[in-house]
C-alpha cells in the first residue's frame, strides 16, 4: 500500500494538490475498494447458497403464485449486477434484511449483541497489553535469560492451543473443580434485569449506576473468558514487543545513552520504549481486531450472548441474512482497524513523511 | 560404516564436483543445523509419530472407531480395556483419535497443496508483470488479507455446506494472501537481477522465466511460512469441526470430538480433554518445526 504511493509521488513532479490530500484520497479509495470487495464476497456467498432464499421467506407450503411474487419482490429476477447494486445500497443504509431466526431486523439484533462482544474483547486486550508489553520489554532487555525463555514458551503454547478447548478446560478447572469463577453466561440469574442498560456493557453500566453486587457478579462471569482471550493477545503482543525492543536496543543512540551514564531504567523506558510506542499501538490495534474475531469460539464455550454466538447460531439455523450481516460488521471493523493503524504510522512516524 | 563415512565426506566436501552434489550438500548442511535445534527435533519427532499413527491406524486401533456400545458409554480411561475411555456413544476414544489423525493430516495436506500454489501464482505474476496487473492483483490480495479469516471461512462453509472438502476450500480461500505477498516481494528482488536478464537475452519467455527461474527461489520462504501456518490451519479446521461445520459425524474429527464431549465436561472430563491434547500436540509440533526450519532456511531472520 505504502510503496505504491511512493511510486506515484516519486514518478512525477509536484502537482498542485498537496501530498497529504492525495494520500488521504488514496486511503479513502483503498477503504472503499476493500469494503466493496467485502460486500462482493458476502454477496456471492449469499448467491451460491444451496438454500432457496424464496423458500426461506415464505416456507415450503406456499403456492407457485406466492413463490413467483416473492421471487420478484426479492429482486431475484434482476441481473446479478443490479442485484449487487441493490445489495450495496441496502447495506450502506444499514439494512441487512430481516433475520429469519429472530424475526427482527439484523441491524437491531447486531446492535443488541455487539456490546457483549465489545466488552469481552476490550477486557481481553487490556489484559493482553498490561501483561504482554512488560513481558516483551523484559524479555528483550534480558535476552536469553529465563524470562526470555518463558516469554517464548508462553507464546508457543498460545499459538498451538485450540482456544475452544482451553476454554473448556478453564471452565472445568476454575468453575467445576475450584469454583473460583462463575459459570457460562454474562450474569447470574438473580442479577438479570437489575441494571438498566446505558452502553450495553454490563461492567460499565453497573459501575455507572452504582450496582456493585451486579458488577461483582458480572466480573466473575467475564474474567475467565477475558483472561483466555487476553492470553492469546498476550502471546502476540509480547512477541512483537520483544522484537521491536531488540531492534531499538541494538541501535547506536542506546549505546550513546548508556555512555552518557543514564540509568538502565532511563535507557529502556525513557529512550528505547518511547520509540516503539507507535509500532506498539498498531500491534495492539491488530490484536484487538483479532480478538473481536477470535471471540467467536470463546463465546460459544462460555454461552456469551455476543456477535460470535449470534453468527454461529444463525449459521446453524441457515439464517443467511444474519450471518452475512455479522460478517460484514466484523469485516468492516477489521478493515477499519487495519486502516487506522496504517494512518497512525503515517502521521506519527516522521520517517514515512 | 565406511560407506556412510564416505557419504558424509562426499556431502560435506568443500568443493562439490557436480551440481547434484552441491544441492545434496546444502540439504545435508541444513539438516545438520536443524538437528542441532532440540526443540525443532522434538517437533519433528512428535509429527513423525503422529503421521505413523495415522498411517497404521487400522493396526494400532484396539476397537472399531465407529462401533457404538451403549452399555459401555462414558467409561473412564483404562476401564474395560479402553485406553482413553469411551465417549457418549460408547465408542473407544483411543481408536477414534488414531483415525482422527488421518483427517487432520488430510486437511492440512490439501490446504497446503492449494493455498501456497495460488499465492505463488498470484504473487509471482503480480511481481513480474508489474503495472496495472500488479495493482489489481495486489488490491484483491489486500482485500482478502483484510478479512477476518475464521468468520470468512464460516461464511464460506455455510454457503457451500458442511464437510471436509468445503472446510479445506474455505480455509484455502482465506489462507493464500500472505503467500502471494511473500512471493511478490521475492519476485521484486529477483526480477531485475543479472541472471534474469541473461535468460531473457537467450530468448526465454515470461512463462518460462517465472516458472523455471523465479518459482524455485520463492520456494524456501514459502516453505517456512507454510510450516508456521500449519498449526493455524489445524486450529481453524478443528474450530470448524467443533462448530459442526467441518467433518460430519460419525467421523472422528478431533474438533467434533471435543464438541461431543463438551456437554459432559464437568462429570466426564476425558471425553473432551483428550482430543484437545492431540490437537495441541500436533500444532505445537508444527510450530516448533517451523521455528527450526526458519533458522535453517532463512538465517537472516531473527529467531524471536
Strand content of chain A: under 5%
Q: Overall 3D geometry of chain A? A: globular
Low-confidence stretches of chain B: none
- The overall average pLDDT of chain A, rounded, is 80
Q: How much helical structure, as a percent, in the residues of chain A?
A: over 70%
Number of strands of chain B: 0
Key traits:
heterodimer; A: 353 residues; mainly alpha; 0% strand; globular; disordered N terminus; B: 304 residues; MetI-like fold; 12 helices; 73% helix; flat
Question: Could you give the topology of this structure?
Answer:
The complex is a heterodimer of chains A (353) and B (304).
Chain A: H1 2-11, H2 19-48, H3 53-58, H4 64-73, H5 80-92, H6 106-141, H7 146-160, H8 163-177, H9 202-209, H10 212-249, H11 252-259, H12 264-301, H13 307-316, H14 320-348
Helix pairs in contact in A: 2-5, 2-14, 6-7, 6-10, 6-12, 6-14, 7-10, 8-10, 8-12, 9-10, 10-12, 12-13, 12-14, 13-14
Chain B: H1 2-12, H2 19-35, H3 38-55, H4 57-60, H5 93-129, H6 131-145, H7 149-160, H8 164-190, H9 194-201, H10 206-242, H11 254-261, H12 269-297
Organism (chain A): Marivita lacus
Main location (chain A): membrane
Keywords (chain A): Cell membrane, Membrane, Transmembrane, Transmembrane helix, Transport
What does this 3D model show about the protein?
- The complex is a heterodimer of chains A (353) and B (304).
- The model of chain A is unreliable at 1-11 (pLDDT under 50).
- The longest helix of chain A is centred in the middle third of the chain and has 38 residues, at 212-249.
- Helices cover 75% and strands 0% of the residues of chain A.
- In chain A, 39% of the residues are buried.
- Chain A contains 14 helices and no strands.
- With 304 residues, chain B is mostly helical.
- Chain B has a single domain (39-63, 77-301), classed as MetI-like (MetI-like fold).
- Chain B is 73% helix and 0% strand.
- Chain B contains 12 helices and no strands.
- Chain B is flat.
- At the A-B interface, helix 2, helix 7, helix 8, helix 10 and helix 12 of A face helix 6, helix 7, helix 10 and helix 12 of B.
- Chain B: Keywords: Cell membrane, Membrane, Peptide transport, Protein transport, Transmembrane, Transmembrane helix, Transport.
- Chain B: It is a multi-pass membrane protein.
